[in-house]
Structures are given as structure tokens and as C-alpha cells.
Amino acid sequence: MATFKAIRIDKADKGTTAALTQFDDAELMDGDVTVRVEWSTLNYKDGLALTGKAPVVRRFPMIAGIDFAGIVEQSGHPDWKAGDKVVCNGWGMGETHLGAYAEKARVKGDWLVRLPDGISARDAMAVGTAGYTAMLSVLALEKHGLTPKSGPVVVTGAAGGVGSVAIAVLSKLGYHVIASTGRVSETDYLKGLGASEVIDRAELSGPAKPLAKERWAGGIDSVGSTTLANLVSMTRYGGAVAACGLAAGMDLPTSVAPFILRGVCLLGIDSVMCPIELRRTAWRRLASDLDKVKLADITREIALDEVIGYGPKILGGEVRGRVVVKIV
Q: Domain named Enoyl reductase (ER): which ranges (predicted)?
């Protein structure tokens, strides 16, 4: 039987195990499109799955990886034919559906987005779920009514994948961007992406006041917990914060004061089950609003056999920007 290389996660007596191995074609799950995967990437959720630090994986065996870009090999879906270049993010890949750290993937055609003109498969994975989530956050703030004239926008977890892309996009759109980071040594890197100011995350890590001094018109937060509570308490009247991550925790120790006294809105961002039309819009906007030079500057490349070793690094905050994984 035909096999292909993949990072397989199995249930163990204590936790899980992850190993690069040969995976049998016969074990692929149902789907009407088979894709030859060329590139993948490394996200925070991938780190959780690879290390078993959180119960991300919900079926075994599992192929890890929540993102891929590649070329259609076979299709029973009317929208796709052999040779089409596609990108796929989320939809439970690497969690409930066999994922992207493999030479082959079989998925539902309804999950796929055509690779936009001007974005290579490698660039698409330099963007990945992190960058696509950043773009969804920008779209949500725009829908709320924010413009560069509204005032500054703060980005937390600024040196990470979501933060790096968010800064690059917002700065290109003309926003005054305030970058919050626990790695102030990355100040030059963040200003190179377009941040106008860099603040230490310690400013946002203490207990949040119900209402604090108004500092920004909006925010993009991938941290959660006390950081998000402080962001909301410091948002100007009528502003909004897009919440898209939980690097510091799932709790939100705040009050209703910012919402009922300042009209602040908390905008939830879900990248996993996001409707396909919004995905297409996000990818079109990434093609036009993300500087490819900046994208290259924030990206490093690794091989498939290096991925497992990077799991603890991304959870430990040791990974700057984006990591692309060369599959073939």
C-alpha cells in the first residue's frame, strides 16, 4: 500500500507522543479533494498539539498541523480540478481531521480557498492561520467603524505570528500602531514592521481597573486573561478590541464598566470555522495589504523533520514572527 511522510500523534499511557513516520494512504479520512501538500507552518495551537500541553487533539492517530498550501491531485468537488493551487486553514485539521504536517491531505472541497494571485504557496504559509487571524481581526475592527483617524491601535503578543502580521497590515493601512511585548529586545524588529510605539507587556499585566485612562481606539489581542482585561479598560469611548487568542489564559477578569459606560465592544475572532466567503475576503486583503518584503523579514524556514522540536519553542515564546515548513 502507498505511504507518505507525516507527523503522527498517538495516545500514550501518559499524554501523547509525536513522531515523523510513514502514514498509510488507507488511513486518510473522508474528503472529496486530495492535495499534495507543499508547505505548512507553525502556530501556537500546533505547539500545543505537538507537545500535548493541552487537549487539542481529539482523535487518534492524528496528523498534526492546522494549515497547508498545495496542489490538488484528485477532486470529486465541482469547484476544484487537478493542478489547482489551494490553501486550507483550520476546519479541525490537526484536531479532529487529519492535518497538514504530511505530504498528502484529503479534505472537503468546501474548506479550500484558491491561492490568490501574487501569493505563492510559501507566502501563504508565511501568513498561515496566525496571519489570516490577524486579517480577520483587522476586518472586524473596520466593520466596527475604526479608521486610522480614530486613533491608535494596540497589538498584544506583538512579536508573535498574529502580532507581527497585524502590525505589518495595520501600519500599511495608515494606523498608528502600539506594540505590546514581553520581549522589549525586539523593539527594532517591531518598529521595522511599522509599530510607532513599543510598550512592555508589564503595563498590561497587573489587575485591571474597571475603567482606566483611555489610551487607544482599538486593539488586537492574542493573549487573553489580564492583558485583555486591561486592554478593554483602556479603550477609548466607542472603541473596540478584537480578541483572537489565549496565550496567557482563557479567563477574563474584568467588569461590565467599559461596555456600558464607554460603549466599548469586544469582538470575538474565530479562524477555525469562519465562513468561506469571509475567508476569501481575508485572503484577498492579505494579497493587497500585506507588504511581501515585511512578510519575508518575519519568516524563517524549517524542514518537516524539525517541526517537533519547535513545539516547545513556540509555547515558550522563543519564536519570533512566522515559521514555514517545507513539506516537499
A: 15-325
The alpha carbon of 127 is separated from its chain's Cα centroid by a whole number of angstroms, namely 8
Range list for CATH 3.40.50.720 in the chain: 129-268
d(CA 169, CA 295): 10
Burial 47-66 (b: 16+ CB within 10 A, else e): bbbbbbeeebbeeeebbbbb
Q: pLDDT tens digits, residue range 73-117?
A: 999 999 999 999 999 999 999 999 999 999 999 999 999 999 998
Write the pLDDT tens digit of every residue in 172-211.
999 999 999 999 899 999 999 999 999 999 999 999 999 9
Cis link prior to 61 (omega < 30° from 0)? yes
Q: Are 185 and 250 in contact (CB under 8 A)?
A: no
**The amino acid at 281:** T
Q: Cα separations (Å) of 58 from 31, 93, 110, 147, 315?
A: 18, 11, 22, 40, 20
Distance between CA atoms of residues 250 and 229, nearest Å: 11
pLDDT digits over 178-187, tens only? 999 999 899 9
Give the pLDDT mean for 284-300: 94
pTM passes above 0.90: yes
Q: Where are the beta strands (DSSP E) in 76-212?
A: 85-89, 104-107, 113-114, 153-155, 177-181, 197-200
Contact yes or no for 109/75 (Cβ under 8 A): yes
**Homologous superfamily (CATH) for 129-268:** NAD(P)-binding Rossmann-like Domain (3.40.50.720)
